[in-house]
Amino acid sequence: MSIQTINPATNKVIKSFDEMTDSTVDSAVGKATKAFDDWKHTSYEVRAKLLHKVASLMRAKKESLAQMITLEMGKLIAQAEGEILLSADIFDYYATHGATFLADKVLAPEHGTALIRYSPIGVLFGVEPWNFPFYQVARFAAPNIMIGNTILVKHASLVPQCGIAIEELFLEAGSPKGLYTNLLISGKRASALVSDKRIKGVSLTGSEAAGASLASEAGKYLKKSVLELGGSDAFIILEDADIDKTVDWAIIGRINNNGECCIASKRFIAVEAIADEFLKKFTDKMALLKVGDPMHKDTDLGPLSSEDAAVQIVQQIDRAVKGGAKIILGGKRVDSEGAFVQPTILTNIQSDNPVYYEELFGPVATFYRVKDEQAAIELANDSPFGLGGSIFTQDIARGERLANQIDTGMVFINHPTWTQADLPFGGTKGSGYGRELSELGIDEFVNKKLIRVSNLDDPF
Ligand code: NAP
């Protein structure tokens, strides 16, 4: 089968690639295993040098890499450039801090001495999504290469050129062959690889269905897994919020990356006192968004990543309306070629509406009006997901008190859920388990070995 680059702004096929055969994949796993035998003995300095080099190459090629992202999945070009810089920051971050994070941790047992020593576990297999083609890979690859593991990545079929480009960056940076390998295979073949004895851990960022498929294989073969799955972040607006500034963040929270972010603000929950004002201002600003070519710097909202994604989200809107939702804005495809969908706001969604518990992966906001802060928290927590969430209030102590009650992996006060190299990222409930980024992100695929020295004369 072939894997294709299809420009979602035109729905035209740009390039086709043959999938790797089973024997090519087998040989790639063999090379990654061989590379591990050497890489695990390299010093942190050698590993850091490689990661810094990858970062500097990314920055040097920022424009061309960003264009590749925009071409393959429709991200606005300025945001694509931002993604390349963020990815480079992640490589630099682990190169700079990795050795400190991985230094021996000396313990203080009752008798003798003990320490924890960190060591790599081997070849890791990562399955990555199309929505941040460089950043998602950076989160997985950078800490693990610093640890001394070697990496196989099966990237999303929508972004084959980005997947290939990342492997090329590693080779250009001087990476040994087999240290980082891009596997050009479809999702259907990914989970079968987990049983390979040479693969020691797996990580997936994507949908719950794909995560469950990969993780159940990992469980069967007793391998560690990390899952970063979907989200339906609540964006809570309290009566003391600065409404104008909050509306600006609400727009960014919903439409960043054309609305295709796991941590996008998806459910807007306003307390009664300011609900009308927020909804009016939010609707007015959403209506002004300029939808169009993602390569143009003045476009606010590009296409969805594919025609399928556009069809799917409009079907979700239709199901929501059949279930009683009201469309305040948008709700349809844009009348042009490409996978464009209008900025949309839905209200009147009750818990029996089919989309109430679903993730809306596109520029579609759902709006809820609640009596007070307690009702806002209850609604925020009434979700199968537990990724992020935001609270807008001028009273930070109140925001922190409410953050304690939100059942997610991340809560942001006065900002949509966001990401940077030195902050941990990950969820609870249906949003997965494990953490990426920050010091926590280097802690997943590493053997924390206890080394205990006893005195022969210590009591039994
Ligand atoms: P997806 O279909 O699950 O695709 C993600 C990756 O999984 C792709 O590489 C895909 O390959 C692969 N895949 C598909 N089926 C698989 C299977 N049965 N076994 C193993 N791998 C399989 O996800 P998507 O719908 O494209 O991406 C959007 C989802 O990702 C959203 O739910 C979003 O919230 C989530 N996401 C989460 C995070 C986070 O950090 N929590 C970040 C970004 C996105 P193919 O492309 O070849 O099908």
Overall description:
The longest helix is centred in the first third of the chain and has 25 residues, at 77-101. The chain has two domains: 2-229 and 431-451, Aldehyde Dehydrogenase, Chain A, domain 1, CATH 3.40.605.10; 233-413, Aldehyde Dehydrogenase, Chain A, domain 2 (3-Layer(aba) Sandwich), CATH 3.40.309. The strands form five sheets. A seven-stranded mixed β-sheet has the order 12-13-14-11-10-16-17, sandwiched between helices. A six-stranded mixed β-sheet has the order 7-6-5-8-9-19, with helices on both faces. Strands 3-4-20 form a three-stranded antiparallel β-sheet, with no helix packed on it. With 460 residues, the protein is of the alpha/beta class. The chain has helices at 22-39, 44-60, 62-73, 77-101, 135-147, 160-172, 208-220, 243-255, 272-287, 307-322, 373-381, 396-403; strands spanning 2-7, 12-18, 105-107, 113-120, 123-127, 150-154, 180-182, 199-205, 224-228, 233-237, 265-271, 326-329, 344-347, 364-370, 385-386, 389-392, 412-413, 428-429, 432-433, 446-453. Helix 3 packs antiparallel against helix 6 and helix 4 (77-101) packs parallel to helix 5. The protein is built from twelve helices and 20 strands. 38% of the residues lie in helices and 21% in strands. It starts with a strand and ends in a 7-residue tail after the last strand.
